[in-house]
Design brief:
The chain is α/β, with parallel strands linked by helices. Helix content is 30%, strand content 27%. It binds ligand EPZ.
């Protein structure tokens, strides 16, 4: 298994191109199931999760080709002319939970689908009850059998009023896709407002869907009989953007992040400012600057968009480990998302976790150590900590990183970090 070696202490200088968002690309790819015409996605990131979604779609009978074209980033051409299967097996779904996003499109297009229940994962239980209740409200019958959700709507899905009891990104996306081909109007109340929902909605609209209220918590969808092909550019990755902004904050220096924009990390910018880091918009994205003085501690609580993203919690904690003062970090989305803490402790951090809150007492300096990645965002937080640490950090199990960060070590070494991948 590959590992990543980092020698800390280098300031960063230069520019980093931000890739398309993984968490936008995955539902967008699932949306290809809604039409027999070609859906072309450009600015698609080259990540193992995205490749995996390609394989899953191929297994369902979708023609799926990935290419890299000049100026387009990665490009997927997806054509679900005929579906040869409507089943996603346990082996597929357990490897990537976003696989569950094929359920809504399959059900809407084919009238039935059998998708394995994802089960728990490293960061929490992550049930899918909200997805299933939404499909039931739209007239589907759902049977849970042998670990599978078997859904059928032989006479088609019907528009419905769906009020989510709390915000769920995935349930909003699955419902949005299914509702696009349902008969009549669907109203989604307490919808997620994450930018990736807006991106999916805009792509569905380009495919002929009738959707209003994107970006708000009240979305209406007037179902249409069929959707057609489209070409759509995947939104920039806000988590990658925030991660590299935190890298500049943690290592010091100045970097320009291109192909992205400040709105995507609006909740993060004031916290970075409190940590003595300036973020300014540029024509191509933003610059992030810190002069090298010690960051100042700030408290943070994760929340659905527009709040502080759970997917940046671990990275922000890495920054706070060397801050001046004590910061309290509360995780409200997932119940087990502090797995980076024991690894950061191995690097000399001073963190105490009680329930959903981690109290981080900033230390003068972290020390490099061998550490182990446990999930995608936790693992990148260890890389960030390595940038700030004295000496060498070796991060193992980097396949977690490859799920969601495109060429991380190349991008960081291009701005002066001493980082390399050690091939197995
Ligand atoms: C999406 O997961 C992202 N994944 C996650 O990114 C992200 O952390 C999360 O949203 C929150 O922003 C993708 O977009 C592919 P949720 P999702 O449904 O859709 C509970 C990363 O590192 N819930 O908004 O699965 C759930 O357990 C990943 O890139 C139910 O109880 O998240 C969680 O506590 C990790 N029942 C909360 O809601 C349901 O039916 C929010 O989850 C659905 C969710």
């Amino acid at each position: 298994m590959d590992r990543i070696r980092i020698s800390g202490g280098r300031r960063l200088k230069g520019e980093i191109a931000i890739s398309g968002a993984k968490n936008a690309a995955l539902p967008l790819m699932a949306a290809a199931l809604l039409t027999d015409e070609t859906l072309t996605l450009v600015n698609a990131p080259n990540l193992s999760d995205v490749a995996f979604m390609g394989d899953l779609l191929r297994g369902l009978g979708v023609g799926a080709t990935y290419s890299r074209a000049n100026g387009d980033g990665g490009r997927w051409d997806l054509r679900a002319a005929d579906l040869k299967s409507t089943t996603a097996d346990y082996d597929v779904v357990r490897k990537m939970r976003a696989s569950f996003l094929v359920l809504g499109p399959l059900l809407a297009r084919a009238g039935h689908a059998k998708v394995s229940l994802p089960g728990g994962c490293a960061i929490g239980a992550r049930p899918v009850d909200l997805h299933l209740k939404a499909f039931e409200a739209m007239g589907a019958s759902i049977e849970l059998s042998d670990g599978y959700a078997i859904a059928s709507a032989n006479r088609g899905l019907k528009g419905a009023r769906i009020e989510f009891p709390f915000v769920s990104v995935g349930a909003t996306e699955n419902t949005l896709m299914a509702a696009s081909l349902a008969s009549g109007q669907t109203v989604i109340e307490n919808a997620a407002r994450e930018p990736e929902i807006g991106d999916l909605g805009r792509c569905l609209i380009a495919m002929g869907a009738r959707i209003a209220g994107l970006g708000t918590s009240y979305i209406t969808v007037d179902g249409v009989d069929r959707l057609h092909g489209a070409r759509h550019a995947v939104l920039p990755d806000r988590i990658e953007t925030g991660t590299f902004a935190i890298a500049a904050a943690i290592a010091g220096g100045e970097i320009e992040l291109t192909g992205t924009h400040c709105d995507l990390i609006e909740s993060v910018i004031p916290l970075l400012a409190r940590a003595d880091t300036t973020v300014k918009p540029t024509n191509r994205g933003m610059t992030v600057y810190r002069n090298g003085s010690r960051p100042i501690a700030a408290d943070v609580e994760t929340a659905p968009f527009p709040g502080f993203p759970t997917d940046l919690q671990a990275q922000f904690m890495a920054l706070m480990t060397t801050a001046d003062g004590t910061s309290r970090i509360r995780e409200t989305i997932f119940e087990n998302r502090f797995m980076h803490v024991p690894e950061l402790l191995r690097m000399g951090a001073d963190i105490h976790v009680q329930g959903d809150t981690a109290t981080v007492n900033g230390v003068e300096r972290l020390k490099g150590a061998p550490v182990m990645a446990t999930d995608l965002r936790a693992s990148v937080s260890l890389v960030l900590a390595g940038l700030a640490a004295e000496g060498e950090t070796i991060v193992s199990r980097v396949y977690h990183l490859d799920r969601g960060f495109e060429r991380l070590e190349e991008k960081l070494s291009a701005v002066g970090a001493d980082i390399e991948r050690l091939k197995a």
